């Protein structure tokens, strides 16, 4: 678990970051600070390993605050202004998030933080999926979500996460694509570095794209031959 701190003077922006943090199973939000003075007290307590730090704060700026903390403090800057990017690199920040911050971009940044603060052990060999079961449970945030295999349209890779997409929901899971690929039954096929598709739900194939309306999934050269071999037995 990585204890983190949000330093943000805009309530809506702070609320959005807190919502994102709650969706990441290895992040623990300690506190939200609305000014640099309060933040400095928390940082000096040594409780927070990761700080989401807004640059434009009243009084002491986020950039100035970053220069006051120890070199080992991990920081992800958040700001609406791109011109601070160069200065952020001088503080050895992990990442620089430009508002409005999307969930995907947030997950990329915290994935970098996790690699530094919480190195993942090598994954044990995955057991073959139970072919007799038509559903499974998977951990997403603090929940165990029940999903049917035949409901999953495709899987999209998001750095240290994958997103399982059905007709009604998108479930974000802390797994890498190769882990997810090993856990899925044969009707799922990797077609791109960032995509696994359910062969049973493909509507059509047009050149280098698979249509799973409304999604249009690219087929990369690396996976094209294997994909075509998988569907060859179904060609008439």
Topology overview:
Blueprint (H helix, E strand, L loop, with lengths): L1 E6 L3 H12 L4 E7 L2 H9 L5 E5 L7 H7 L5 E6 L5 H6 L4 E4 L4 H15 L17 E6 L2 E6 L5 E5 L2 E5 L4 E4 L3 H7 L4 E5 L2 E4 L5 E3 L2 E4 L2 E4 L2 H12 L4
Parallel strand pairs: 1-2, 1-3, 3-4, 4-5
Antiparallel strand pairs: 6-7, 8-9, 8-12, 9-10, 11-12, 13-14, 14-15
Overall body shape: elongated
CATH topology of the largest domain: Rossmann fold
Compute the number of strand runs. 15
What would you give as the CATH superfamily of the largest domain? Response regulator
% residues in beta strands? 25-35%
| Assembly form of the protein | single chain
What is the CATH architecture term of the largest domain? 3-Layer(aba) Sandwich
Round the Cα radius of gyration to an integer and report it: 21 Å
Order of helices and strands: EHEHEHEHEHEEEEEHEEEEEH
Tally the helices: 7
Model regions low in confidence, pLDDT < 50 over at least 5 residues:
121-129
Average pLDDT value? 84
Computed structural class:
alpha/beta
Number of domains: 2
Cα-to-Cα separation, first versus last residue:
52 Å
Major beta sheet summary: 5 strands, parallel
CATH classification, class level of the largest domain: Alpha Beta
Fraction of residues in helix: 25-40%
Cross-sheet strand order for the largest sheet: 2-1-3-4-5
Pfam family, one: Response_reg
InterPro entries: CheY-like_superfamily, LytR-like, LytTR_DNA-bd_dom, Sig_transdc_resp-reg_receiver
Domain HTH LytTR-type: 136-206
Protein name: LytTR family DNA-binding domain-containing protein
């Amino acid at each position: 678990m990585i204890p983190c701190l949000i330093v943000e003077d805009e309530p809506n922006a702070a609320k959005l970051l807190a919502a994102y943090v709650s969706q990441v199973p290895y992040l623990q939000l300690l506190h939200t600070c609305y000014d640099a003075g309060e933040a400095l007290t928390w940082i000096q307590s040594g409780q927070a390993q990761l700080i989401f730090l807004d640059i434009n704060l009243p009084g002491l700026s986020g950039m100035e605050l970053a220069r006051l903390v120890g070199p080992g403090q991990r920081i992800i800057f958040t700001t609406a202004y791109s011109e601070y990017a160069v200065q952020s690199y001088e503080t050895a920040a992990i990442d620089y998030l430009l508002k409005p911050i999307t969930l995907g971009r947030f997950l990329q940044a915290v994935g970098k933080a996790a690699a530094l603060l919480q190195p993942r052990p090598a994954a044990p060999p995955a057991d073959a999926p139970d072919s007799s079961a038509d559903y499974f449970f998977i951990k997403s945030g603090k929940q165990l979500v029940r999903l049917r295999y035949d409901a999953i349209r495709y899987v999209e890779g998001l750095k240290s996460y994958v997103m399982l997409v059905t007709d009604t929901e998108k479930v974000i899971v802390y797994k890498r694509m190769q882990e997810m690929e090993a856990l899925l039954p044969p009707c799922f096929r990797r077609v791109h570095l960032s995509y696994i598709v359910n062969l049973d739900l493909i509507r059509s194939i047009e050149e280098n794209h698979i249509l799973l309306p409304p999604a249009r999934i690219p087929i990369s050269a690396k996976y094209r031959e294997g994909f075509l071999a998988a569907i060859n037995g179904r060609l008439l």
